[in-house]
């Protein structure tokens, strides 16, 4: 049980922190729709960073699963099965979406020099398709999982349930991009609480009785 809380706490922190780190490392184009951003993203010297980013994201998503696994055990009732199914589907969508996002840079790396670059419009279209899978499908599915957790009784404190409700609503709206950062912040808070509560809940040592 103690090891499970530790893994869940570390996993929540990994999801909240490393997902954002993976985005920073990959630096895919988006938002500004600048040709200069596309050139930097597809540059030969940046391709190694793109591959590193996918590994970082895998670690982050494993962390998310560990966090959701612990939360599943806190759900009272049969909806824990629905919660877990939505969480696994969200994880798969996040990974698939990010894989699509890095597709343009990966295709140049795997071309063996036969491709030097790709049209900016094509690169942006592929990247946005990946974000639609990650933030659209993945974010919405995660939001539905968190809402499933929050709508009924759980063994966690009330503030965890209500903050999860807010995080779930933000995740459902994460296709708009900025609400997802509140989900990351929530995961960091949950991770810290899980680790701290684990230590505070540890039983005090029992003094040996003398015969």
Description:
It is a single chain. With 211 residues, the protein is mainly α. It has one domain (2-200). Helix content is 76%, strand content 0%. It has helices spanning 2-26, 35-42, 47-74, 79-101, 103-110, 120-150, 158-172, 179-200. Helix 1 (2-26) runs antiparallel to helix 8 (179-200) and helix 7 (158-172) packs antiparallel against helix 8 (179-200).
Note the main attributes of this structure.
elongated, mainly alpha, 211 residues
The whole-number mean of residue pLDDT values reads 85
> What best-fitting shape do the alpha-carbon axes yield?
elongated
What is the chain-wise order of helices and strands? HHHHHHHH
Approximate strand percentage: under 5%
Instruction: Name the helicity range.
Output: over 70%
**pLDDT under 50 segments (min length 5)?**
200-211
How many beta-strand runs?
Answer: 0
Distance between the termini: 33 Å
- Radius of gyration, Cα only, in angstroms? 20 Å
Largest sheet: none
Number of domains: 1
What structural class is derived from the secondary structure elements? mainly alpha
| SS summary, helix count | 8
